[in-house]
Amino acid sequence: MNPLGGYNIEDLQPGMSARVSKTVTEADVILFSGISTDTNPVHLDEEFAKTTSFGGRIAQGMLSAGFISAVLGNKLPGPGVVYIGQTLKFKAPVFIGDTVTATVTVREVIVGKRRCILDSVCTVDGKVVIEGESTMYCTTAA
């Protein structure tokens, strides 16, 4: 472990996994709209959102994807890690009140380059809403 409590590249092994769960609130959607400037009415206007295929307001996809970042930066690999790549596939909407569970699993460790590749998945009630791949630059004990 590094002095910040994160895993050094030498500590990581394929199959290691961590997760974070968060219930998406009205405040989360509004605050994310302000921070990101994503004011799409499908996120903010219930009357408009009812006319869409979703039947109501949905959270911003990148808000839910942010929970992946929380796992990576706080748990695995954890503090000290730096993002260098992320792919995302949005599979289903997330609604206000849904509890999103973001899970990352180490797929590959490249010690010489201080990189690790992790599978990243967000689910709601066991259904995949986002899947992707995270590439991280990790701390080292050396």
Can you give keywords for this protein?
alpha+beta; five-stranded antiparallel sheet; 142 residues; elongated
Strand percentage, roughly?
Answer: 25-35%
So how many helices?
4
- What is the average of the pLDDT values? 97
SSE pattern, N- to C-terminal: EHHHHEEEE
* Spatial strand order of the main sheet: 1-3-4-5-2
Provide structural commentary.
The chain is of the alpha+beta class. Helices cover 24% and strands 35% of the residues. It is built from 4 helices and 5 strands. It has helices at residues 26-36, 41-44, 46-50, 61-74, and strands spanning 17-23, 82-90, 99-110, 115-124, 127-137. It has a 5-stranded antiparallel beta sheet with strand order 1-3-4-5-2, covered by helices on one side. Strand 3 (99-110) and strand 4 form a beta hairpin. The longest helix is centred in the middle third of the chain and has 14 residues, at 61-74. It is elongated and about 55 Å long. The model has no long low-confidence stretch (mean pLDDT 97).
Please summarize what this structure is:
The protein is α+β, with helices and mostly antiparallel strands and 142 residues long.
Note the topology.
Blueprint: E1 17-23, H1 26-36, H2 41-44, H3 46-50, H4 61-74, E2 82-90, E3 99-110, E4 115-124, E5 127-137
Antiparallel strand pairs: 1-3, 2-5, 3-4, 4-5
